[in-house]
């Protein structure tokens, strides 16, 4: 794309930006503790860590390998939406309800709106390949370019530039931190100068720190310089001087240490993989003697995060997350979340910690007690489907209304009811399913709210539903829940469903198309069902259940109290049968790294299972080979000899000998991938002739390619040729996609956006002063907005829907007219054209 959105443009930027066209902000949007969610795009050292502190429990999890980000509800584990970003060297940082994504490969930064899930126009604070770091604060988004030493302070919603500051030419990794308000601190990697960037300008404290061994972090929102060689942590004051300090008990020469931001106290946390310990320094008292033995000496540890006074430490060696209680000074849990050797990231939201494997579909949720719930971000065998939740669209071209958290999320614990129990408010403003006092047969769907009043809608929208035996029940009384699909003709069936994973809102999970569940406490619960279909796609449904402490009231009048005869009253309290274990299975084919060939391997994960005492797990992979287990380990892997669909069965046995089983169908397909490179993909008005090259795609045997162009024209293929040329004749944003099929039935899809710039004119293009010109977009696109600048130092027009603007030049010269445009889909660009103004015409006579 030619040009940038307000970065380095040679015109005066106007103060007033475009009116927000999106829906109102999510109720979940709250302030981020400054500096806690800085992310380095394209950092090859491992999975980057993000730590934000929000009052809600939804987190954006990035999947760079398929070019998208997923919004996951921490209460239910449901994937609320998936937003396509396109391939690139992506890293994300959450800013309130939004996700800010930096792409080092393209030198761009974009924002995913937390209310509408739309992707903003990209800003370009760097050239392709220059590492970018994003630091959201309360009111400013800082974008640091480590190559040029430039820091861009941008509006956190529009991404427009407020000011650009120059720091050192080298900003080291770990040497930049936000100060909690509107400023940014940075270390000069050569001189040790400490610079501060803020609205009032840049201040520099010369030779303030040891640049080779000092890291900047935040403690309770204040910047702290931690010198690992000197063993000292110092709070940075507003003037750049030293404030409260503490010793840091690091060993000389320990290269495995990692400094952790502290969100809730004026402390500094340091982990050491070499020693296997967590060190705690208190800035308020100056002491550093406290330590927690993590029991992992010699292990490779990742970047830890703090959540509600507990530190979550990723152990890459074992695939575990170590949960350390900072108050008691002990490790309370070490759940296994991913296979050993996996590099993954942690993100903190409220009282919930998320883990994410950026290179695969695997993710999950860790509660404060170490309980783990696995999340499948997408269907690894078919990334374009909606595994685990609705697939969000980044613009109108998606053709579907993005799912909001109100559709699938809700309380995961009991909510104390008032006189009339009602569900708690969802995290968005969209209305949720409201229970009634009558019986129910149909629950709420993923897309529409269905009344729980005993009536089936006359024209129910097609989709997934939950049938429930009653909308309310007493504590400990079981209800039956049934996952079904409603066809376009209104017919209800579960024939196309292969498996269903249930969450009951009380921390329990289950599996099976039809299940029974009882709740132990009164309250209102959101029940969710993640449904996998026979064609390999997934969907979801949810409904609300009300549990009361007493029996539901009897309908109709009652004049005589009824009680059992004395002889019928039990003489001993009834015994409560022990709860059976609950089996929860997540199985998928392993994803190879790019260019690698791997066996037909499937990984099975029983992390979400529950039961009494120590559990034993048995995995049957459905191909006639011996089962794996019973074993204490919650994961197992298996190599298949041939492709196909196999039933993977998990049996969980608890300490009492009770068992529960769940089965899931897994499609085992040959490893392959589709890739498409389009050139040119922007920067031209119609006609734009683009060449698509899919020769980097992989698969088994001969590959066939089918190209679709997104403009309503006919597809090309299938063909064995990996390239095609297509001409776009109208302005707009188009998705050019390729479908690759191989000799054994493997099918892979990828796409790339093509942006065709608008056609525009400036008339007249020359003349004597004063010269009035009219700039006009020919064939304006629906929903597009435009911002005009005229290059003579006067303010631009500001964003407007009108495709025309006029301006009068009063002095001779050559001026550059700017047209900045943004399509309704989010694509943007800048075009320029020159106007020549001569001296005033000579007076007649």
Structural class: mainly beta
Strand content: 35-45%
Mean pLDDT: 74
Helix proportion of residues, in percent? under 10%
How is this structure best described in words?
With 845 residues, the protein is an all-beta fold. It has five domains: 39-376, Methylamine Dehydrogenase, Chain H (7 Propeller), CATH 2.130.10.10; 410-423 and 433-552, Immunoglobulin-like, CATH 2.60.40; 586-592 and 599-668, Immunoglobulins (Immunoglobulin-like, Sandwich); 677-756, Immunoglobulins (Immunoglobulin-like, Sandwich), CATH 2.60.40; 759-838, Immunoglobulins (Immunoglobulin-like, Sandwich). Strands 1-8-9-10-11 form a five-stranded antiparallel β-sheet, with no helix packed on it. Strand 25 (310-315) and strand 26 form a beta hairpin. The longest helix has 4 residues, at 405-408. It is globular and about 110 Å long. 50% of the residues are buried. Its main location: membrane. One of its GO terms (cellular component) is plasma membrane. Residues 380-448, 550-580, 678-697 are annotated as: Disordered. Residues 430-448 have a biased composition (Polar residues).
Question: In a nutshell, what does this entry contain?
Answer:
By secondary structure, this protein is mainly beta. It is built from 1 helix and 61 strands.
Describe the structure using short key phrases:
transmembrane helix; five-stranded antiparallel β-sheet; PKD domain containing protein; mainly beta; monoatomic cation channel activity; 845 residues; Immunoglobulin-like; Ig-like_fold; globular; 1 helix; 5 domains; Methylamine Dehydrogenase, Chain H; membrane; five-stranded mixed β-sheet
């Amino acid at each position: 794309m030619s040009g940038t959105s307000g970065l380095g443009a040679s015109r005066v930027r106007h103060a007033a930006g475009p009116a927000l066209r999106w829906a109102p902000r999510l109720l979940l949007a709250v302030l981020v503790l400054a500096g806690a969610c800085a992310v380095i795009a394209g950092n090859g050292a491992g999975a980057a860590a993000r730590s934000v502190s929000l009052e809600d429990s939804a987190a954006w999890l990035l999947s760079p390998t398929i070019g998208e980000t997923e919004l996951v509800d921490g209460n239910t584990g449901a994937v609320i939406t998936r937003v396509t970003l396109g391939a690139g060297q992506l890293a994300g940082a959450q800013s309130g309800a939004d996700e800010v994504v930096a792409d080092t490969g393209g030198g761009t930064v974009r924002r995913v709106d937390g209310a509408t899930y739309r992707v903003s126009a990209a800003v370009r604070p760097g050239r392709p390949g220059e590492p970018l770091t994003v630091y959201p604060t309360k009111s400013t988004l800082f974008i640091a370019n480590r190559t040029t030493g430039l820091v861009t302070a941008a509006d956190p919603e529009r991404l427009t530039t407020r000011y650009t500051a120059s720091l050192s030419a080298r900003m080291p990794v770990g040497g930049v931190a936000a100060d909690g308000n509107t400023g940014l601190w940075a270390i000069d990697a050569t001189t040790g100068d400490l610079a501060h960037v803020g609205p009032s300008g840049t201040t520099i404290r010369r030779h303030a720190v040891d640049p080779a061994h000092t890291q900047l972090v935040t403690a309770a929102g204040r910047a702290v310089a931690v010198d690992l060689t000197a063993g000292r942590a110092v709070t940075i004051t507003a003037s750049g001087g030293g404030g409260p300090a503490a010793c840091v008990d690091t060993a000389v020469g320990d290269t495995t240490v990692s400094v952790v931001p502290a969100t809730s106290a004026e402390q500094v946390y340091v982990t050491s993989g070499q020693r296997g310990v967590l060190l705690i320094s208190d800035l308020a008292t100056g002491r550093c003697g406290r330590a927690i033995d993590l029991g992992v000496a010699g292990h490779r540890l990742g970047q830890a995060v703090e959540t509600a006074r507990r530190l979550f430490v990723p152990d890459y060696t074992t695939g575990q997350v170590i949960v350390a209680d900072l108050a008691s000074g002990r490790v309370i849990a070490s759940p296994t979340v991913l296979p050993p050797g996996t590099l993954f990231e942690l993100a903190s939201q409220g009282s919930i910690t998320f883990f994410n494997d950026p290179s695969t579909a695997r993710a999950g949720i860790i509660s404060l007690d170490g309980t783990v719930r696995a999340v499948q971000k997408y269907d690894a065998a078919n990334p374009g489907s909606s595994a685990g939740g609705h697939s969000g669209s980044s613009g109108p071209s998606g053709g579907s209304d993005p799912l909001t958290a109100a559709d699938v999320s809700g309380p995961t614990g009991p909510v104390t009811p008032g006189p009339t129990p009602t569900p708690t408010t969802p995290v968005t403003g969209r209305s949720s399913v409201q229970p009634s006092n009558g019986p129910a047969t149909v629950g709420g769907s993923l897309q529409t709210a269905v009344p729980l009043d005993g009536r089936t809608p006359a024209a129910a929208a097609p989709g997934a539903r939950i049938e429930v035996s009653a909308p309310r029940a007493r504590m400990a009384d079981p209800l039956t829940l049934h996952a079904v699909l409603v066809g376009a003709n209104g017919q209800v069936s579960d024939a196309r469903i292969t498996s269903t994973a249930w969450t009951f809102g009380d921390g329990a999970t289950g599996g099976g198309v039809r299940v029974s569940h009882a709740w132990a406490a009164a309250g209102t619960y959101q029940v969710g069902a993640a449904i996998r279909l026979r064609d390999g796609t997934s969907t979801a449904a949810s409904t609300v259940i009300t549990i009361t402490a007493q029996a539901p009231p009897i309908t109709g009048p009652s004049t005589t109290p009824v009680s059992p005869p004395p002889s019928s009253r039990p003489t001993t309290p009834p015994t409560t049968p022990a709860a059976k274990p609950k089996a929860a299975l997540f199985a998928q084919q392993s994803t190879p790294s790019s260019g690698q060939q791997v066996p037909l391997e499937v990984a099975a994960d029983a992390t979400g299972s529950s039961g009494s005492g120590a559990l034993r797990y048995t995995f049957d992979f459905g191909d006639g080979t011996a089962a794996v287990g019973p074993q204490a380990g919650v994961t197992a892997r298996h190599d298949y000899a041939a492709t196909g669909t196999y039933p993977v069965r998990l049996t969980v046995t608890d300490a009492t000998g009770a068992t529960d089983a769940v089965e899931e169908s897994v499609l085992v397909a040959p490893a392959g991938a589709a890739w498409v490179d389009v050139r040119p993909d922007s920067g031209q008005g119609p006609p734009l002739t683009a060449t698509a090259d899919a020769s980097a795609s992989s698969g088994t045997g001969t590959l066939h390619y089918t190209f679709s162009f997104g403009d309503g024209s006919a597809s090309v293929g299938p063909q064995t040729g990996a390239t095609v040329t297509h001409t776009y004749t109208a302005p707009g944003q188009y998705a050019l996609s390729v479908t690759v099929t191989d000799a054994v039935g493997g099918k892979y899809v990828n796409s790339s956006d093509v942006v065709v710039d608008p056609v525009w004119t400036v008339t007249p293009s020359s003349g004597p002063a004063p010269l009035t010109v009219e700039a006009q977009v020919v064939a304006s696109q629906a929903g597009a907005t435009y911002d005009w600048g005229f290059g003579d130092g006067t303010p631009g027009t500001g964003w407007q829907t009108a495709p025309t603007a006029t301006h009068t030049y009063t002095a001779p010269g050559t001026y550059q007219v700017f047209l900045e445009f943004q399509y309704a889909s989010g694509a943007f660009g800048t075009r320029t054209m020159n106007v020549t103004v001569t001296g005033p015409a000579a007076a007649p006579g």
